[in-house]
């Protein structure tokens, strides 16, 4: 039986500490999908096709609120715009990959896979880049899917009166607080939060609060950063 490439095993090993962090997140995503009216089949399919933590939760919230499909998709695109920057940054390392490998890599791209892979490529020029990337990204995908599946079945078995509607907002808060590392990110989070509340309070139709808040929040963060706000 052929052994697995060492770099692939390194990728799995390096990603292992992150598995403990994303498992509860995936569990909540599965529960939230059921709480918002998706069936177990749709919840699992949704997680497999979308595979994007924060935007996945945002889409679930919007679908549960019967937001127009264009708003749901637009919100996911806005939340995931950073993936375009990640792709542009990591693309030079993937230039020699076959088209099929690039397709797989693009589907599996996450914040964690990008960060770990770029750090590895920078310090070890002999790394089998695809093997390492696949070890990190595929192991994260596997844990995420298992977690959301478990969450979907758990959510389906919970009594409605337990009221787990708060689960998704709590996860967003848990993700937000550690990300506020400098003035630019703090400005982005604060402005985005205030704008989201203002949009809801103003009664703007079509559930545009997440999309508008994301756009304005990112703009505020970029403005502060351009003014030297990270000092």
Q: Would you summarize the structure shown here?
A:
The protein has 231 residues and is mainly alpha-helical. Helices cover 76% and strands 0% of the residues.
How many β-strand runs? 0
The share of residues in helices is over 70%
Terminus-to-terminus distance: 54 Å
The stretches of 5 or more residues where confidence is low (pLDDT under 50) are none
Element string (H = helix, E = strand): HHHHHHHHHHH
Structural class: mainly alpha
Major β-sheet profile: none
Evaluate the radius of gyration.
19 Å
Number of helices: 11
Beta content? under 5%
Average per-residue pLDDT, rounded, comes to 82
Compile the SSE list and pairings:
Layout: H1 6-35, H2 40-50, H3 53-64, H4 69-79, H5 82-90, H6 99-108, H7 111-123, H8 129-157, H9 167-179, H10 183-202, H11 209-226
């Amino acid at each position: 039986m052929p052994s697995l490439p060492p770099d692939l095993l390194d990728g799995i090993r390096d990603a292992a500490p992150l598995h403990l962090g994303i498992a509860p997140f995936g569990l909540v995503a599965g529960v939230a999908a059921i709480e918002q009216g998706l069936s177990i089949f749709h919840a699992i399919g949704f997680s497999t096709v979308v595979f994007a933590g924060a935007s996945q939760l945002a889409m679930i919230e919007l679908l549960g609120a019967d937001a127009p499909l264009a708003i749901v998709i637009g919100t996911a695109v806005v939340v995931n715009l950073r993936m375009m920057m990640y792709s542009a940054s990591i693309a030079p390392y993937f230039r020699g990959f076959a088209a099929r490998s690039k397709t797989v890599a693009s589907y599996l791209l996450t914040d964690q896979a990008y960060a770990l892979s770029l750090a590895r490529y920078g310090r070890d020029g002999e790394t089998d880049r695809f093997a390492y990337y696949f070890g990190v990204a595929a192991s994260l995908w596997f844990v995420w899917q298992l977690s959301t599946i478990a969450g979907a079945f758990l959510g389906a078995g919970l009594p409605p009166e337990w009221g787990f509607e708060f689960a998704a907002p709590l996860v967003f808060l848990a993700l937000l607080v550690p990300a506020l590392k400098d003035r630019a990110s703090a400005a982005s989070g604060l402005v985005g939060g205030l704008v989201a509340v203002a949009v809801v309070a103003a009664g703007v139709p079509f559930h545009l609060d997440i999309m508008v808040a994301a756009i304005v929040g990112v703009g505020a963060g970029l403005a502060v950063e351009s003014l030297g706000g990270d000092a």
